[in-house]
Amino acid sequence: MLNSIEIELALKAEGFTLEVDNAHAGGYRNAEGLLVFVKRYKEFKTDPKTPMYKQPLVLRWSIKSSPLFTKLQECVGSSNLLYVNHNMRGFEEPESGRKQNGVAVDVESISHLKKIINVLSGRQDVPQSSYEDITLLSSFLETLPETTRKSIVDARLGQGIFRADLINYWKSCAVTGCAIQKLLRASHIKPWRSANNIERLDHFNGLLLSPNLDLAFDQGFISFDDKGNVLIKSDILDQDSLSKLGIHHNMKLRKCENRHQTYLAEHRRIHQF
């Protein structure tokens, strides 16, 4: 987890310049005009900085009404949606009140900071690989007991107890019924990187899928409703593509329990179904 001092250094390395230099908030802007604030703690402006660890990066409050907010939430996880600090000059005034407010978030690593910047800038983001996800949370994973850490990492790789539990539950592909287990992939419904440790290992947060369905589901091209019926983004997958992929509108999860529905609702929210 990066503290406020580390974030300020990383922002400078990414081409941000200090625009607002206050005792309790430093405002940084890049060449594209993106303004973010970093929390500070010092009695007087001339005092040395004290690192802040709790949600040290503050984003413009109006991001909450932006189409990018869903993607941002997936990226940052928990956040303080109403952080108030009158030092954040340059942020627009909130709808009510006299102090500027924003969305305060944690930053796991420099690569995580770059991902946040990409989301805020509306840049196309390349989906993270298993390795990148694990690397992103490496500092957190290192605090866990070895057996717990191995189970959680294996779950991201579609291996270990998570995969075994899915095979035991589904027996075959959750949609097609294909029973060639070596072909099937253990896929998280709520993404591994934004889940907690219990959710990462919960077999109700998983689907055993054939490779074509797994990739389409992971990319958010398809999802499932509370009855297990497939939902398809027709603006991405036209009829010709669906035919070639072997995906059709009559597909359905063979089982869809209440505990699946909570995770499926999160998948639909993240991918804007």
Sequence of secondary-structure elements = HEEEEHEEHHHHHEHEHEEHH
The best one-word shape is: elongated
Q: What are the segments in which pLDDT stays under 50 over at least 5 consecutive residues?
A: none
Number of helices: 11
Strand-residue proportion: 15-25%
Helix content: 25-40%
What is the averaged pLDDT score? 85
Domain HNH nuclease: 173-225
Keywords: Endonuclease, Hydrolase, Nuclease
Pfam family, one: HNH_2
GO molecular function, one term: endonuclease activity
Mind explaining what this structure looks like?
The radius of gyration is 21 Å and the shape is elongated. It has 273 residues and is α+β, with helices and mostly antiparallel strands. It has helices at 4-13, 69-76, 110-120, 130-136, 138-141, 146-156, 160-170, 197-201, 211-218, 239-245, 258-270, and strands at 17-21, 25-29, 35-39, 57-60, 79-84, 101-105, 185-188, 206-209, 222-224, 230-232. A hairpin with a 5-residue loop joins strand 2 (25-29) and strand 3. It has a 6-stranded antiparallel beta sheet with strand order 1-2-3-4-6-5, covered by helices on one side. Pfam families: HNH_2. Keywords: Endonuclease, Hydrolase, Nuclease.
